[in-house]
Amino acid sequence: MSQTQDLLPDTPTPLSTNPRPPPGRPAPGSRILAVVRRLLVRDTASFAHGWAGKVLVAAVLIGIPATMVLLTVIGGRYGRYAEDSWKALLMLVVLAGSYLASRRLLLTVLIGALTVAVVSWVLSPNLADTRDGDPTVLAHLDHQAGRGMLAGYHDVAVAEIDLNAAQPVRLAGIGADDTTPMEIGSMTKAMTGLVIADAVRRGEIRMDAAVSTYLPQLAGSSAGTATMHELVTHTSGYAEFGAATLRRGAWKAPLGHNFLTADSAQLTKEAKSQTVSGRGRYAYSTLGSAIAGQAVAAAAQMSYADLMRTRLFEPLGMTRTAIEDGHALVTGGRSPTGLPVQPWVMSAYAPGAAAVSTAGDLAKLATALLDGTAPGMAALEPTTATDQSNSRIGDFWQISTWQTGQSITWHGGQTGGYASYLGLDRPRHKAVIVLSDVANDASDLGSQLLAHRK
């Protein structure tokens, strides 16, 4: 160094406006980035290198879909297992695939959550754009849409009946019309109740007789001692479904597949193998409904489908109504969360949920029920208490007293991809029918339309 340079004063260092943190103390932003980098690094090179980390990864990958399944079965009589469990299955597949490809747990969870959210949004049902039919009914639907009652619907067909009006039957639909076939689910039970009451009038069956009288294959079992009256009022002690059917439903429902495929031999086995409990107490049973329908068909010496066709559908001119057994009569609907669902083609369970109909045909049924010309009118008379203080039951038909003062005779229905409602205000000679190609609760919309028509 030269003498001149040595004599020069030191140049002052300007103060920094962002002083560096003391050594060993990184900036907060750097700490966050470091954490993110560590979480995004391959787990086998970080926390999952040992067995404890591997157990944690497995617990997260299994725990997330397991928790989703648990949430779908909590609450209500059914929970939402059949509606929402497909999301847990999708999450499991995405988590497994993403983790095998990336070995990064945080990234995998983010991909899974985003995938399920996007797919759920894409599949979510939206109300159709096309409108057809009676302007008055469409105005009523617009009013209900403004109240949020059509949220979650896609195609919906409605019939309004008023025998005291100049135009007794009014039909309309959004995305559907009065000829659009839809599965009506458990409304089939109500139709079966009419045919059972008609068979009593014909002297073919007695309501106080044990069901084994007509289905001798049930003799010797506790299920066979249930009376026809107990079966049609859901007081037989039967389970809702047979054990084998429930097992099928556990894995088929999340995929949108039909699980009510038991044949006669399987139905008999399910009925005989169940533990009948709570006899005399109301407990809704599709298994009991199926047994009751098959019993009256056996007493009449014809198949259940032929029984319904010859004794109810044809006499009322319901030419577009049939029992969906052997082959599909619809293309398939959607679950409330939008999952495409196969048609419910049934065999022995048919009396519980296998009818396919239209708003136009159901308007014919409702008209005959209001004017008293339908077969089996005795089925509509309440005989037994239910689990609701304001409701009683006849032959599968529910009779409820509303806060509006109306006494409503009704039945709803759902399959995996469709929903239905038929409500009768018999004292006022009015009725409402709702059909939907989404398996939502059509009873909510139907009851609102009927309540506003006092």
From TrEMBL:
Alphabetized UniProt keyword annotations: Membrane, Transmembrane, Transmembrane helix
Database matches in InterPro entries: AmpC-like, Beta-lactam-related, Beta-lactam/transpept-like
Residues annotated as domain Beta-lactamase-related: 160-441
Region (Disordered): 1-29
Positions of transmembrane segments: 55-79, 106-123
Presence of the UniProt keyword Nucleotide-binding in the record: no
PANTHER family (alphabetical): BETA-LACTAMASE-RELATED DOMAIN-CONTAINING PROTEIN, D-ALANYL-D-ALANINE-CARBOXYPEPTIDASE/ENDOPEPTIDASE AMPH
Stated name of the protein: CubicO group peptidase (Beta-lactamase class C family)
Organism whose genome encodes this protein: Kribbella steppae
